[in-house]
Fold:
Amino acid sequence: MLTVKKFGGTSVADKERIYNVARRCEKAYRRGESLIVVLSAMGKQTDVLIDMAKEINPNPPKRELDMLLTTGEQTSVALLAMAFDAMGIPSISLNAYQVAMHTTRVHGNARLKRIDTDRISHELEAKRIVIVTGFQGVNKYDDYTTLGRGGSDTTAVALAAAMHADVCEIYTDVDGVYTADPRIVKKARKMKEISYDEMLDLATLGAGVLHNRSVELAKKYSVPLVVRSSLNDSEGTVIKEATKVEGMLVSGVAAEKNATRISVIGLEDKPGVAFRLFDLIARAQINVDMILQSIGRDGSKDISFTVPEDVADEAIKILEDNKASLGADKIDFNKNVAKVSIVGTGMMSAPGVAARMFECLYNSRININMISTSEIRVTVLINEKDTERAMIAIHDEFGLED
Ligand code: ADP
Ligand code: ASP
Ligand code: MG
Structure:
């Protein structure tokens, strides 16, 4: 039996926690399991490194930032290997270069393309526990890349897929996936299981418990995925293809504060305008999310959309620079917005779910700026300060509590 176990930052934050991880792995190892362990950087080390970089240069070159960030994961894997050594357990730590984990070129948000499995297989055959740095990869120039914040989950799932592991376990500081972030919604309930599709939407819409690309990969390669606590033995949440019908319309609520609304006002109401606008944004590799176009009036229309806050200034600058060629009157934006979403395959066949969500927000006197929907989700854009209140009210409305 081959398992991939991934431990997040809080789970390896200090000496005691590292030994806690080592002991958990020891049990599995002694049972005869082959183990690949993927680690994040210790505690908030990635944030510390980003702050260090920004002190030296507020806009650090992305290649050099990745070079720095990869040291976080390199520290934790080496320390865990030292702990195993002290316990008399054979292990070896490997970074992305040593494995090798090949990614696309882009720094800060690279995608895994291919993993060489020879070295890992060889080490496993020698009965060593293989400890791999999460979050990092190597591009075709042999430079280090990183997979985006929270990306160690994706490293773990990708390794599980490449090595045909029996299961990929994500150990974290909560004991599973909840109906909402349990730190915000106190009454949130732990789910026994959830489908890949629902989890993918929740993760994409702000449920930070899993990196969304990890769920995408798990679905693509049918990797059995479990989220559980690194500190206790409770069962955790299984993420898989089809789940039991729980009879719930909505399975979870998620929120994303990292959003900015941009509006392009007074565009000419003629074909090709939306194409030109979004083509400019896409060329800068900026992802656009919710899009709203007003109905043309007197030959002019407005287009609003959301982008991640960290790239908002870049998007605004592009639009300002091209205002004349786009024929726009004004660019307007608001950074103090948040997206709040409900997700559930149950709503596919149940009309009125969106209306219930809107009524509940109305009852809480929360204004909705934009709306977008898919078959299994509804997202609203609201003022950031209302986020927690909205999540709690919606969670209550759909009866998701314990
Ligand atoms: P790690 O460092 O282990 O990767 P993260 O901080 O990335 O941990 O993810 C765990 C956190 O995700 C939890 O502490 C919790 O606050 C947050 N979270 C957000 N949404 C959810 C959810 N629906 N269920 C569980 N945890 C959630
Ligand atoms: N250490 C990285 C981060 O903080 C990756 C991860 O934790 O998954 O984003
Ligand atoms: Mg994480």
In short: The CA atoms of residues 60 and 349 lie 49 Å apart. The first helix runs from residue 15 to 30.
